[in-house]
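debug: dumping io for the single-chain case to check the tokenizer round-trip. Nothing else runs in this session.
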Amino acid sequence: MRRYLRGRRVDVQAIAGELGLGRTTIYRWFGSRDELIGEVLVRAAEPLLEHARAGAAGSGGIALLDTLDRFNRSLADAPALRQFIENEREAALRVITSSAGKVQPWVVGAVTELIKAEVRAGTYRPAIQPATLGYAIVRLGEAFLYNDAVAGMRGDVHRLREVQGALFGAERAENGAPAENGAPD
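debug: decoded output
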């Protein structure tokens, strides 16, 4: 985590040396460098999502949109994540967006749980299953945040918020129109 947060390469050999361990021990614990980095990224993202949720306003689709917007903005502004993507673009995108990795399944699960919490509270009725909506929201986030149209992270969080708002049915509620997803305003 220290190496990642300082913008340094997560080098298994160097980490093993710093800890007085063999590389094979690190690989036994994590499986691969990608899985080690995935674990680091998840641990770095967890407090960002918790902070985003704690600061979110409203309920239902509005709260979901505000939470994800705050989270997306913190990801786009994260210097360590930006450095990782700039230094190791292919590895970074593989680690972040692979459904077989640690990061994407964690983010999908966390977003899905946020949706389910609003459903349980009676403040939100999604138009599709929460797991499908969570997956779609995350994949869209990946496309807008990590688009390679420009060198480095694109971070188009404004347009991402608009699209996520439409999916949550929150953009209409924010503008004073009744929500169409059946959720209370």
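debug: round-trip ok. The chain has eleven helices and no strands.
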